[in-house]
What we know:
Structural class: mainly alpha
Helix content: 55-70%
Order of helices and strands: HEEEHHHHHHHHHHHHHHHHH
Strand content: under 5%
Number of strands: 3
Low-confidence stretches: 1-6, 84-89
Shape: elongated
Radius of gyration: 26 Å
Strand order of the largest sheet: 1-2-3
Mean pLDDT: 91
Amino acid sequence: MNPDSRNELSPEDALRLNVLLAGELLAVRLDEGTRTLYALTPKGEARIPLNPVGRAERYFQRVRELLGGHALNSPGGYPVHLRRWTRMGQASEKNLEALLKLGASEAVMAVAYAAGLTDELARRVWWAGQNLAAMEIARVMLNHPAVRAGAMGKELADYLIEHLPFEEDPIAAMQSVRAVLAAGLLAPDKRDQLWAKGKRRPYYLIGFLESLPDELPPEAPRVLPADLPDTPAARLLARCYSGAGQSWLKTAELTLEKPPAHEAVYLLLDLLGQYFAAGRDAAGLPIPPPEIAALEALGRLSNVVAVPILTRTTAVGPLLRRHLEPLFAPIIAHIRVLRGLP
Length: 342
């Protein structure tokens, strides 16, 4: 082997890498900045310093070609056709273990998004993705039932909560809270702290509306009318009048007053429509007409009603809220009717 050839590895690197590949390898992380290859094995982490010859960029590509040839019989490294599927969860299950041996960030993300992710694979992804978008990886993996139920679930949930204050994008923060609450892995005290922080950042509260609709800190309940029929609409009314229901309504109103971006608007409208779905049949309930109208109107909501507004603007924050006022003002008014407020 000629160490000066642009297409070859240095003799010492070739020897170390081939010895590594001859053993049991679980994942690879390639750090070009420190010129180091890290390997996860059943015995722990191994570290191989690399000594590039020629152009460093081409040299690291040659390392990836060696890894790809070993893991996937793909001499070019990460197969091009898989790049399109990185964040679509379409990587073949049989290739997931192999993808983590390529030292490619696209491959790590492909496994994180894959439908066949397991708790053990999540552990390897978490190790391999240390220099990548950790918050995104944690959110994505926490959405997998197998990960929630496994050893990695709580670690990922705790990581998201610990780093939530540093997440500058409100939509990303909203998605982190949604993932954590949907997983059901927060200790009660941490959940209470997150709820309290949502008073200053209402987009946090969307996850509570979605995953804990009947477990919110209760408000004072309203007194139900007598002689309610046993119908879905009547049960919805009872839900709204309960302490948790009044809290849900109050929280929904707060989030509608300050949606940060389009994604939050679409999600909120879908959640309202789902919560009030039975309200479309409220006619005939022994309640004041404004409450019947509120139940019916809220039950018809979905993200579709915001499309005519949101497709014409890219605004966020206060400017977005001004665009939404004609749509949201009647919704908030209906919510306040059901809260017994003027």
